[in-house]
Design brief:
Elements: E1 4-9, H1 16-29, E2 34-37, E3 40-42, E4 45-47, E5 50-52, H2 54-62, H3 69-72, E6 75-77, H4 83-89, H5 96-109, E7 112-120, H6 131-138, E8 142-148, H7 152-165, E9 170-177, H8 185-195, E10 200-204, H9 222-225
Parallel strand pairs: 1-7, 1-8, 2-7, 3-6, 8-9, 9-10
Antiparallel strand pairs: 4-5
Length: about 230
């Protein structure tokens, strides 16, 4: 069984956190200890405890091991924009070495560490580095999240090509139904099943306030456990 894997999205706002929460819930149901790790989060809110990101908080809630917020999300950035721009606004330099240090700590205490990305596969974290560069350095297997909407087929296939060109293994993918009125949903799923060279872990239906519900039942995590 793998000790850590990376959740990549075909774009921003496609449901990475929704799928991440579902997977964490499914892993917990199997009796596995988990940590949800959001290395970089842009678009945080100021609170009495400091900057907090809603996605990172959802990961903390769904995981079985309780860790401090700063350990779950070491780079919490205020502006809801590309991380490399948000980091400049906050006068912060994102250090891959720190991301790796936190990941190593998490892997030493949890059966499985779920690492959720930010934006799409090539999201920049500085003028010269993308988050995918760090994922490649850590050799993390990838679960791809596809938000089912117009254009998702191209986004999915391009993401698959980029991930494979980086030499990383795609161990599964999941569909998230963003809009209940999406036309030709079944045809889109069928093509994704044909084009993505990895097992489909599940489909999250359109459910209002889905992050607040128990959605682990929609995920088949056997490909992750057996990877």
């Amino acid at each position: 069984m793998i000790n850590a894997f990376f959740i990549a999205g075909t774009d921003t706002e496609v449901g990475k956190t929704v799928v991440s929460k579902a997977i964490l819930q499914a892993l917990a149901a199997k009796g596995l200890s988990t940590i949800g790790y959001k290395p970089v989060a842009a678009g945080c809110k100021e609170t009495e405890q400091g900057l907090r990101n809603s996605d990172a908080l959802h990961l903390q809630e769904a995981a079985t091991i309780d860790i401090a917020y700063g350990e779950a999300n070491p780079y919490a950035l205020l502006s809801a924009t590309s991380p490399h721009i948000a980091a400049k606004f906050d006068n912060v330099q994102i250090e891959p070495a720190l991301l790796s240090e936190k990941l190593a700590t998490h892997k030493s205490v949890a059966d499985v560490v779920l690492v959720e990305g930010a934006g799409g596969w090539r999201v920049p974290i500085s003028d010269t580095e993308c988050l995918s560069t760090w994922v490649k350095q850590e050799k993390l297997p990838v679960v791809l999240v596809v938000g089912i909407k117009l254009g998702c087929l191209s986004h999915a296939m391009l993401s698959v090509e980029a991930i494979q060109n980086d030499g990383l293994e795609i161990i599964g993918w999941a569909a998230n139904r963003i809009n209940p009125g999406t036309e030709n949903y079944a045809d889109i799923i069928r093509m994704l099943e044909e084009k993505i060279p990895a097992p489909k872990l599940g489909e999250i239906p359109y459910v209002p306030s889905v992050k607040k519900k128990n959605i682990g039942k929609y995920m088949n995590i056997e490909p992750i456990i057996n990877a």
